[in-house]
Amino acid sequence: MTTYSRINTIVDAVITDLQTATTLGLGSSPKVYERDEHPQAALNRGDLPCAYVIPIMEGGDEVSPGINTSSYRHEFPITVTAYYMGNDLTATQLGIDLRTTRNYAYQYVNYYLTKSGGRTVGGGHIKKLKVDVGYWVSGGGQVVHYWIVKMDVTACSS
């Protein structure tokens, strides 16, 4: 499999996993995009909730050729971000929404930690997962909650 087709297969598998997940609060027809956008863009489009798959950013793809073979080892990050409309700016509601958003993030992580066949996605091996959770407030006072999971993936291509 060529390098780009291996990477694309992994990215497509991450997108499919997000589209078929039922525990992430993304709705029955999840909006999942391969791109990176500020929460304001999704908010302005009325696109919440939604998720973004951002491959090979903030770290790049480290390619290591095999010795006496035509295969290559790739180590690269895939970042997944999900955005949700918050309910209110009160301290109580922010706490509730942050916890709900955090729960969605860990549901996503747990999917890969407990997945049948191991910690794989599209033929790549997930080496590490890093979780961030937070919120952003628009100029109009709307709250957008988010989680970010950065997956470090290793894959081989020929």
What secondary-structure arrangement, pairings included, does this model have?
Layout: H1 3-20, E1 32-33, H2 39-45, E2 50-55, E3 62-65, E4 72-85, H3 91-113, E5 120-121, E6 124-137, E7 143-157
Written overview of the protein:
The chain has 158 residues and is an alpha+beta fold. It has a single domain (3-157), classed as 2-Layer Sandwich (STM4215-like), CATH 3.30.2000. The chain is built from 3 helices and 7 strands; from the N terminus they run αβαβββαβββ. The protein has helices at residues 3-20, 39-45, 91-113; strands spanning 32-33, 50-55, 62-65, 72-85, 120-121, 124-137, 143-157. Strands 1, 2, 3, 4, 5, 6 and 7 form a 7-stranded mixed sheet that branches. Strand 5 and strand 6 form a beta hairpin. The longest helix has 23 residues, at 91-113. It is elongated and about 60 Å long. The protein starts with a helix and ends with a strand.
What distinguishing features does this structure have?
158 residues; 3 helices; seven-stranded mixed beta sheet; alpha+beta; elongated; STM4215-like
Helix content: 25-40%
Structural class: alpha+beta
Q: Quote the average pLDDT.
A: 91
SS elements, strand count: 7
Tell the overall outline.
elongated
CATH topology, which one? STM4215-like
Structure summarized in a few sentences:
By secondary structure, the chain is α+β, with helices and mostly antiparallel strands. It has a single domain (3-157), classed as STM4215-like, CATH 3.30.2000. It is 30% helix and 36% strand.
